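The following record pairs a protein chain with its ligand, protoporphyrin IX containing FE.
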Amino acid sequence: MFIHNPLNDSELSFPILECIHIIGFTFSLGTIAVVDFRLLDWGMPHQKPSQLYQDTAAFTLVGIIVMIFSGLLLFSSDPDMYYLNVAFDLKMVFLLLAILFNYTIHRSAVLEDAGSRRAKAVGWISLGLWSAVIFGGIFLAFINEGLSLKNLLMIR
Ligand code: HEM
């Protein structure tokens, strides 16, 4: 069933949306990374992770909301191309894991100013999950159409 998408009427809407998408990720991932660097003892020795987290939590949330809305609009420009793309499928799996991790284990470790070993493990896992989301976003454009996660896992 063909649904007319006004976003596809103008050549400018996709690049503008992609710019908004990237601005969103500077707010979200930029602030999460600052807290993770503190968890890994990479600078900011005078600030507690809990203080950094509280100071940046609103920016992170706004950034994630902007990412999801701009991402859904980008996706709507050609849904068939994207959901049949293994990079997109994996990006969505890692995005769900990253958001869940961020607001559960990561949040409790940060607010407790957890001791170094736990803090470092949480910092590395967080950076790893969000990097996987970014890689998925970038490789989206380089993966052959039709190579979906379903095909790759040979799920009928
Ligand atoms: C915090 C979450 C997200 C991050 C960090 C993220 C990251 C990225 C990155 C790095 C790119 C590549 C930009 C480029 O090549 O210029 C991208 C593109 C894209 N993202 Fe996301 N994204 C997020 C959420 C979403 C969501 C929720 C969706 C859809 C439901 C989505 C759909 C897309 C689409 C369709 C593209 C365009 C790919 C293309 O160039 O054709 N993103 N994203």
